[in-house]
Amino acid sequence: MEIRVLDISEKEKLEDFLVLNGGEAWRSLGKSYIDCMFSKDFRRPTFLVAVNGDEIVGCAAFSEEFFTVGVWGISWVNVCNSQRNKGLGKTLVEACLVEIEKRTRESVTVILNTYPNKTGLYDKVGFKPAGNDYAGGSLMVKYLEKVK
């Protein structure tokens, strides 16, 4: 299995993967987010994909947040059913953290949002609870410190 940055030729494959895992309601939002990765938008997302052969079996995205400097977000963490509970989600989140560290010169804050009581994966990677969002989801935070 390989974890790497999504190639532009795989856009539709990733969109279909997100729909397979999240339902058709995710298609429009997923497509717009994936398209943004290949645009010239400021602070566009980067998708990492886990590929087994030619099949996408997992993904996660990261981006610098629009509302402030020094805050990054991780989103779209998805793993296909056959690969769940094998550490792939943790590996994808860790790969996002490595990529964020490569792109930053200063210490940064990384945030994410997850379902209530579904924080175990993120706890294992060192995220800490930071409260609830407006819909009752769990906000989590991790600090990436640069040693000077």
- Uncertain parts: none
Number of helices: 4
Structural class: alpha+beta
DSSP strand content: 25-35%
The averaged pLDDT comes out at 92
The CATH superfamily of the domain at 2-104 appears as Gcn5-related N-acetyltransferase (GNAT)
Structure notes:
Helix 3 links the parallel strand 4 (71-79) and strand 5 (108-114). Helix 1 (11-22) runs antiparallel to helix 2. The protein is α+β, with helices and mostly antiparallel strands and 148 residues long. The chain has a domain at 2-104: 3-Layer(aba) Sandwich (Aminopeptidase). It has a seven-stranded mixed sheet, with helices on both faces. The radius of gyration is 15 Å and the shape is globular. 30% of the residues lie in helices and 33% in strands. It is built from four helices and seven strands; from the N terminus they run E-H-H-E-E-E-H-E-H-E-E.
Summarize the structure.
This protein is of the alpha+beta class and 148 residues long. It contains 4 helices and 7 strands. The protein has helices spanning 11-22, 27-37, 88-103, 120-124, and strands spanning 2-5, 46-52, 55-64, 71-79, 108-114, 128-132, 138-144.
Quickly list its features.
Aminopeptidase; 4 helices; 148 residues; alpha+beta; seven-stranded mixed β-sheet
SSE topology sketch:
Layout: E1 2-5, H1 11-22, H2 27-37, E2 46-52, E3 55-64, E4 71-79, H3 88-103, E5 108-114, H4 120-124, E6 128-132, E7 138-144
Parallel strand pairs: 4-5
Antiparallel strand pairs: 1-2, 2-3, 3-4, 5-7, 6-7
